[in-house]
Amino acid sequence: MSGGGEGNSAYGHKAFKRSRSHFADRITADGRDGWPVEAGRYRLVVSRACPWASRSLVSRRLLGLEDAVSLAVVDPIQDDRSWRFTLDTDGRDPVLGIRFLSEAYDRRETGYPGGVSVPAVVDVPSGELVTNDFQQITLDLATEWSALHRPGAPDLYPRTRRDEIDTVMAEVYEDVNNGVYRAGFATDQEGYEAACAGVFRRLELLASRLAGQRYLVGDTITEADIRLFTTLVRFDAVYHGHFKCNLWKLAENPVLWAYSRDLYQTPGFGDTVDFDHIKRHYYRVHTEINPTRIVPLGPDLSGWLSPHHREELGGRPFGDGTPPGPGRTGEEVPPRGRP
């Protein structure tokens, strides 16, 4: 999710097109891009409002990488200089010492194309951005960082299932993850209707797939579930109203609503979600869609904690592993962001 560049005023003026990640270096076990896996060296910068960044929050929790990769959370309201560390004392990240994420980008490359996006992984010693490749970051956390995973960490990208996982993720990305944005930022009726119809067509197919199995691929949680969850958890709060994806609410689809609640109540998922940050970001930043910047009171969040009964389908959430323990002190979602 980008900020800066043209600033927030660009939203809603032209058809939406997601930028490719400009900084696609990888942090790997063998350090082939010059960035070896190393505990304590890197800082993950996220917005809890952003679905793309939220993937890395979930992966980091499930894999137990909290001690290996430190976390910085930016203000959900960015300005035209991009994501800000105004949640921290004196408006400065305590580890990187910067006020704006753009400063880490500038240390890597001045005059780079595109906006300043999260998630971003920053090299702490140099203060330089390493990567903003949201598609690859979580895959590498699951595979390249395995030596630093907690005991009992799940295999989120099992080798024998990768082709199927990749296929499902590609469909979810095109029609759901990205589709809600194409609908929300559409500049003409035809473009909006095509994108919105595509979102719900894919959601219906996913509901059919999930009616008889607990997770998207196999009988355990995988990267595919993480990527779908981060859109579904935002659906009724922002995409249904703000992005006009309103053929039905998530809570009106029995299968997807139960699936989403199942994951939300799984350690590592719901405990990373901040509904307050989500709502304030979308409704206050996208001023061309919501010029009054009024943030709605609803929806009622209490349903997220209601029984889902998905365990009746079987499945082993963490495979041969175990759930993650409690999150790190200081990384908890504040009460106003939770049901």
Coarse structural class:
alpha+beta
On the 0-100 scale, what is the average pLDDT?
Answer: 94
Instruction: Characterize the biggest β-sheet.
Output: 4 strands, mixed
User: How many individual helices?
Assistant: 10
In helices, the fraction of residues equals 25-40%
Low-confidence stretches: 4-13
Strand order of the largest sheet: 3-2-5-6
Separation of termini?
24 Å
What would you note in describing this structure?
The chain has helices spanning 51-63, 102-108, 134-143, 162-177, 179-184, 189-210, 223-232, 235-239, 254-264, 275-285; strands spanning 2-3, 42-46, 70-73, 116-117, 120-123, 128-131. The chain is an alpha+beta fold and 339 residues long. A four-stranded mixed β-sheet has the order 3-2-5-6, with helices on both faces. A two-stranded antiparallel ribbon has the order 1-4. Helix 1 crosses helix 7.
